[in-house]
Each structure stands twice: as structure tokens, then as C-alpha cells.
Fold this sequence. Notes:
The chain has 229 residues and is an all-alpha fold. The longest helix is centred in the middle third of the chain and has 25 residues. It is built from 10 helices and no strands. Helix 7 runs antiparallel to helix 10 and helix 9 packs antiparallel against helix 10.
Amino acid sequence: MRFRSLARAVGPRLLRGVVAAAVLCLPVAVLALLVTRHFAPIVDLDERVVVAATDVTRAHPGFEDALIGWQSAFHPTMVYLYAIPVAVWTWLRGFRARTIWGVVTMLVGWNLGLQVKLIVERARPVIADPVSHAPGYSFPSGHAFNVAMMVTTCLIMAWPLVRRWPPLIRAAAVAVGVLVVVLTMLDRIFLGVHFPSDVTAGVLLALGLSSASYLGFSHRPKGHLEEDS
């Protein structure tokens, strides 16, 4: 009986989340198909942008140092540590189911991002005079994906608390999150370790997975009442 009750409660949410993920992550699948098929307009643009960006980086050693510092600060193994204060805050304020959802979503998302890299197997940019090196495959960018995953999930997780703030402060919090994601995208390109399509795919995948997960979590089957906290 308990298993059936659990299945009735979880089943519709899981199905809703999976369907939402399939729809929301479709642009990433299309982009992956195009780059693996060497679609000329995207591949050519990717290569031109990376070459131009690394030329700028080489010409400004101080800029390169800043890029390396940002890369270290927002390495995937570090990113989710920054989510801990948010999780503690929401937990202590009584949003415990929401906190568990956020933590699980980020951990599962981290693993899914790695799996997508292994599926696509795109080589990293090859530059005559490289600025930096990074191991593994290129699509999607792990830095861009994990930063976007952390920022998006934390904002959703804490939104019941954030929305109580004055509009200007609330907008500033969202703007800071967006800025961190954009700077991470640029960091990967100017270091020459990812193509623009890689970082774009990373952010789109993170937005899709986090949003789909929340759609599943927030789903309330007919006749089923439950506190969000």
C-alpha cells in the first residue's frame, strides 16, 4: 500500500519532469547534432570567434590572469559549494522539501552534464598558439553548465524568500546571477577552451534541466494536497 501511494504521488511528477526535460532540452540536442555533423555556418563562426578571442587574451596578460582566476573560482568542483548557504537558508526558513529538491537537482544535473559530454564527444578548440588547456570533451561547457545550473536552481529554490524583497533588490539578485553566468561563458571562450556553441549549449541545458525538474517537483496530482515546504 505504501509503495502504491508513493507511486501515485511520485509517478505523475516524474513523468511531467521527464516530458518537460525532453521539450526544454530539445534545442541542445539540435545544436549537438549540428556541431557533430560539422554544420558549416556554426563551425566556422565558432572557430573565428575563438581565434579572435584568444588573440585579445594573448595581447593582455593581466586579462589572461583574471580569466585563469575566474576559471579556478568557478570550477565545477567548486560551484556547488556556493549553493550551500542558500540551501541552509531555505532549510532553516522552513522550505525543506524545496531545499531537498534543489540539492538533488544540482547533484543529478552535474552528473547529466558529464554524460552529455560523453555522448557528443566533441573535441576542444585547436589553436596554433593556445592560451590555456583543459581535459575532456568540449560540448557542452562544464563550467558554463554547472554555473548556470547552480544559479538557476538556487534562484528557484529561494524564490519564495527572494520575492519578498523590494523589487530593486530582487532584480539586483537576479542580475548578479545572470552576470556570473555570462562572465563564465566569456571566460571559456577567451581562454580558448570552448567554442561559443559549447557555452551556449551548457547554459541552455542547465536552464532546461533545472526548469523541467521544478515543473515535476511543483506538480500537484488532482486530489493530492501537499505543503511546498
